Amino acid sequence: QVQLVESGGGLVQAGGSLRLSCAASGRTFNGYFMGWFRQAPGKEREFVARITWSGGSTYYADSVRGRFTISRDNAKNTVYLQMNSLKPEDTAVYYCAAGPANIAYTYWGQGTQVTVSS
Question: Which of 8, 23, 79, 112 is an S-S bond match for 34, by CB 3.0 to 4.6 Å?
Answer without folding.
Answer: 79
